[in-house]
Prior knowledge:
The protein is mainly α. 89% of the residues lie in helices and 0% in strands.
Amino acid sequence: MKDRVGIIIAVVSGLLFLAALFFQPVTAAWLNLILNWVIVVTAVGLMVSVARLIATHLRHIAVGRRGFLFSMIFIIAFSATLIAGIFMGEENPEYLRWIRAIQVPLETALLGLVALVMMSVATKVFRERGWSFLTLSFGFSALVFLFLNLGFLRLNQDPSLGKVVAVVQGLPMAGARGLLIGIALGALIMGLRMLFGQVVEND
């Protein structure tokens, strides 16, 4: 009974929130209030997760588990960042520059790793599926966008061709937004199916 009540509350609140999004001029104040509460609850949950992560790494250091040096690096980096943020403030220019100096190289390395993984996957697809319309279109489009984004093609003297290139360069962003919309709709449908399925099972 308790599980069913919690699921019903989650379903009703989710549907009401979706309905409020479609009538946003009228429900803007309520939406802001709900979003503020969501931010607070999410922040508390994040703090609990971070505390549990730190406790796990401290336990690894205490027992001398294999790889505890990485746990020590994590604890030192987290503590230094937290202390600096508390005393300097999160809007301090020096603090932000320090964070960017660490974050940007890490993000660049991660993107490079993702690019290598994607290239290896693409090579595997070409090797397994052979030369088909799908593989040829994928390879040709990847080469075209890579060539355009590297800046090898200079069309400053021809405005018409420059507009065409700008439109072509915007296609990946449009595709990415479409992919995000599809993921969001899929997650919404899956969440509703799970919630309603659990309600039916509890009945």
